[in-house]
Amino acid sequence: MLLKGKHAVAFARRPDPAIWSVLAFGEDEGLASDAASSLIKAWKPKLGELEVTVLDDDAIKKDPSLLFDNLEAVSLLGDPRAIRIRTSGDKIAALLAEALAEGDKRPDRYAARLVIEAGSLASKSKLRAAASGAQNAACLQLFADEAGDIEERVKTALLEVGATIDAAALHAFTGDLPGHRGIANAEIEKLALYARGLGRDVSLGDIRSLSATDIDHNLSAAIRAALDGNLVAANVALQRLEVAGTSAISILRALQSETLRMLDAHKRMAAGEGAPGMKLRPPVWQSDWPAFRARLGKWPQKRLMRIMERIYEAEQQAKSGSGSADPVVRVLMNELGQAAARAS
């Protein structure tokens, strides 16, 4: 059984009791992790505990019997059990497919439920085909959040701690959230912790104060300035990041994230989506779209792919231990600024 998007999310929250095994996958591994956590929560009995065993590719590949032994084992305390497996693709697909097929042939063989988390899986993936085709399993394909979904998640997280947020603050907060679900969840949890017991709406000023060192702001400012060809502004922002002790790897990661977002924008526009700003992660708000669109004009897809190559090279240099990594990043950012200025 294959479920996609919101149907997959709904199933993870309220799974069919007849389904003993679930594969959750998507381009953002954080989405699969959230779905797995929802399933674990749903499988937990009202009275008692759910015993959860976590396994990964390496452990199972090293000892294949580990998978079946854990599925068959009965809890010493009599509690229900679940096996949670994180896999990076088809490394152990054959073993997992065997387990799913056996679950169809002999529904009473396993004492534990099974949830498998994966990243992006092609339609021809052996693991995806096995989970979709099994009678007693579900295959959940998860997609990135829409802007409205992100806002609802923020408001829900705040309501759980008895807090609310005003519209301007919500707009600013969600606009700065990273596209990766796991990292975004951490930021939402930090906001909820801040808002607990605040006694009023979270304001725009509160959002700004959550980043007292302005590291996130300066990261974005440095990258935007470099890609716009504004070398002075880029170097000012880099100087502030250096004073704040921001690592070179953090800057490279932020640059990589923005480059991937621009590549996604080019892909969507080539497919006829027009101005897909709100579909990007993080979204580009309508007021910011003209500047973002102008930036895209300076950086076609081939040049963006070259940036990805340069990021990899810079990261290798930064991790080589041959000295400070800061000059490596500064050289790269200045090269980008000069290239963008020439493109103007």
Automatic annotation (TrEMBL):
SUPFAM superfamilies: post-AAA+ oligomerization domain-like. One of its GO terms (molecular function) is DNA-directed DNA polymerase activity. Its EC number is 2.7.7.7. GO terms for cellular component: DNA polymerase III complex. Keywords: DNA replication, DNA-directed DNA polymerase, Nucleotidyltransferase, Transferase. InterPro entries: DNA_pol3_clamp-load_cplx_C, DNA_polIII_delta, P-loop_NTPase. Gene3D superfamilies: 1.20.272.10, P-loop containing nucleotide triphosphate hydrolases. One of its GO terms (biological process) is DNA-templated DNA replication. It comes from the Bacteria. It catalyses: DNA(n) + a 2'-deoxyribonucleoside 5'-triphosphate = DNA(n+1) + diphosphate. Belongs to the DNA polymerase HolA subunit family. This is DNA-directed DNA polymerase.
